[in-house]
């Protein structure tokens, strides 16, 4: 597979605790992959390791393209304006013109001069996604896209992502507790529990498995119905 | 009445110097969370360097700028040492900056001796409504106004300034977007050195500087900076001016040797006041 992102036998430890235990996964060019799992499974640690924020104890990470990351909890610069938040996303790309982000996420155009901490949760998540896109990524990791957002906002954001995936060939690693959303959007998925990948495969197949359905989909509900 | 205005202008000039040192503390603290106890040293290094450059025959302007450059370099080096380890906490860095300030005593007295040094500033005075004002005091006030305006524009309008604000606002997010937080920390230390250096060359002609002047300068700078909770450079300006005027009035109407005590009492009062305000906010929130 022509992988843009490859993680092999990754181990991350916080002092004595092992947060990730020999985790391996791949994301192909232009592919949308989900990483689902319960709270505390190590999902955010994995993304922090991909970003270089956390140092792995062992294992191998290979990113063969521009990478950007939407962190859990949005993590905006609260006292800076929307414009400045977006501009700072361009640190890696150097392309500081945010007009295409305002065209892609028109809701942001009207609030570009407002401070990030004065925005609603949905607006903040849009800024977080826009800021990551300013890096002109070829692969984008999104940590908890849906957390704390109204379903209508999640649907709008998912639509934008899916369209970027189709038109620009953006590869996405979607880290979600909302397994239904993740399996709906992505073609393939991994399940991470207690720092280990416990199952992986095409989303449709995983959704049919009793273990995943019971743990993450509210018990045996078939996908897409 | 003319004495009052004379003390007022003198106090504003003195307070401008405190504000510059205080804003250096704020810059470093915002970006790195380190309380830089060697901030007073930059003013001393700049003041003593300027005296040396004048001694070597350097003209006005050149001597001051070179001395500020030396202070900025020393600031950068302080940052390099204080943040050398990958896992150095801000608390450890604080201790390191304290150690560096002590080390600087030895280095400065070796290089410049232990006698206070001064150098010429802008000579002469002007009279406004029977009040005699030293031109150097006006130069200090005008220069500080220009420096603070430039600092504001730098932080608000330039990309590097926005990166510094990003590190201050959310260091984790700064790393996520690819900002080199450590490099920004070093830049903040360099900026702190620059601001301290400006204070040193401006205050040098008004009050002689010796190797141990840094203690009073850092106390005054800290008192100025905590008015804005070590987080806002413009509040450090206000704090510095308040403190300078208070010290000048005390020196004029009471006793000059009470100046440091005024700074300490003001600092304590502000900290107690802020603590009480925080407690009220927490109580209301819960």
Quick rundown:
Chain A is α/β, with parallel strands linked by helices and 225 residues long. In chain A, 32% of the residues lie in helices and 28% in strands.
Overview of this protein structure:
- The complex is a heterodimer of chains A (about 220) and B (about 290).
- Chain A has about 220 residues and is an alpha/beta fold.
- Chain A has 2 domains: about 1-65 and about 140-225, 3-Layer(aba) Sandwich (Rossmann fold); about 75-135, no CATH class.
- Chain A has helices at about 45-50, 80-90, 100-105, 120-135, 150-170, 180-185, 205-210, 210-215, and strands at about 5-15, 15-30, 30-35, 60-65, 65-70, 140-145, 170-175, 190-195, 195-200.
- In chain A, the strands form 2 sheets. Chain A has a 6-stranded mixed β-sheet, sandwiched between helices. Chain A has a 3-stranded antiparallel β-sheet with strand order 2-1-4, covered by helices on one side.
- In chain A, helix 2 runs parallel beside helix 4 (about 120-135).
- The radius of gyration of chain A is 17 Å and the shape is globular.
- By secondary structure, chain B is mostly helical.
- Chain B has a single domain (about 1-285), classed as ABC transporter involved in vitamin B12 uptake, BtuC (Orthogonal Bundle), CATH 1.10.3470.
- A two-stranded antiparallel sheet of chain B has the order 1-2.
- Chain B is globular, with a radius of gyration of 19 Å.
- The chains are: A alpha/beta (about 220), B mainly alpha (about 290).
- The interface of A and B includes residues 51, 71 and 132 of A.
């Amino acid at each position: 597979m022509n992988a843009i992102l490859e993680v092999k036998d990754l181990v991350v430890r916080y002092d004595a605790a092992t947060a990730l235990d020999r985790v391996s996964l791949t994301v192909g060019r232009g592919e949308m992959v989900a990483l689902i799992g319960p709270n505390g499974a190590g999902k955010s640690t994995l993304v922090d390791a991909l970003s270089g924020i956390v140092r792995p104890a062992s294992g191998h990470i290979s990113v063969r393209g521009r990478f950007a990351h939407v962190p859990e909890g949005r993590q905006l610069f609260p006292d800076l304006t929307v414009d400045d938040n977006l501009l700072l996303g361009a640190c890696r790309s150097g392309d500081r013109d945010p007009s295409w982000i305002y065209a892609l996420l028109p809701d942001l155009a009207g609030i570009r001069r407002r401070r990030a901490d004065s925005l609603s949760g949905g607006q903040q998540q849009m800024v977080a996604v826009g800021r990551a896109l300013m890096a002109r990524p070829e692969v984008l990791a999104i940590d908890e896209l849906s957390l704390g957002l109204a379903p209508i906002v999640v649907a709008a954001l998912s639509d934008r992502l899916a369209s970027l995936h189709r038109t620009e060939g953006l590869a996405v690693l979607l880290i979600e507790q909302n397994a239904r959303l993740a399996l709906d959007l992505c073609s393939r998925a991994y399940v991470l529990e207690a720092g280990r990948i416990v199952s992986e495969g095409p989303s449709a197949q995983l959704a049919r498995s009793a273990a995943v359905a019971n743990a993450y989909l509210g018990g045996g509900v078939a996908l897409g119905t | 009445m003319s004495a009052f205005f004379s003390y007022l202008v003198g106090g504003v000039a003195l307070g401008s110097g405190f504000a510059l040192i205080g804003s250096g503390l704020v810059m470093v603290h915002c970006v790195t969370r380190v309380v830089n106890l060697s901030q007073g040293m930059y003013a001393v290094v700049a003041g003593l360097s300027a005296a040396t450059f004048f001694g070597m025959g350097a003209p006005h302007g050149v001597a001051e700028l070179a001395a500020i450059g030396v202070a900025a370099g020393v600031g950068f080096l302080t940052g390099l040492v204080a943040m050398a380890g990958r896992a150095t906490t801000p608390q450890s860095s604080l201790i390191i900056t304290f150690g560096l300030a002590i080390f600087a005593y030895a280095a400065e007295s070796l290089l410049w001796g232990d006698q206070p040094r001064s150098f010429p500033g802008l000579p002469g005075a002007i009279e406004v409504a029977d009040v005699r004002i030293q031109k150097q005091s006006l130069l200090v006030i005008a220069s500080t106004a220009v420096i603070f305006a430039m600092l504001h524009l730098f932080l608000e309008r330039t990309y590097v300034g926005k990166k510094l604000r990003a590190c201050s606002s959310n260091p984790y997010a700064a790393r996520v977007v690819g900002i080199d937080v450590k490099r920004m920390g070093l830049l903040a230390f360099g900026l702190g050195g620059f601001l301290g250096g400006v204070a040193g060359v401006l205050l040098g002609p008004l009050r002689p500087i010796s190797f141990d002047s840094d203690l009073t300068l850092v106390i005054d700078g800290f008192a100025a900076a905590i008015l804005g909770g070590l987080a806002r450079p413009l509040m450090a300006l206000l704090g510095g001016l308040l403190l300078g005027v208070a010290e000048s009035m005390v020196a004029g109407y009471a006793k000059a040797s009470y100046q440091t005590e005024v700074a300490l009492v003001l600092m304590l009062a502000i900290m107690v006041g802020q603590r009480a305000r925080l407690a009220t906010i927490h109580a209301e929130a819960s």
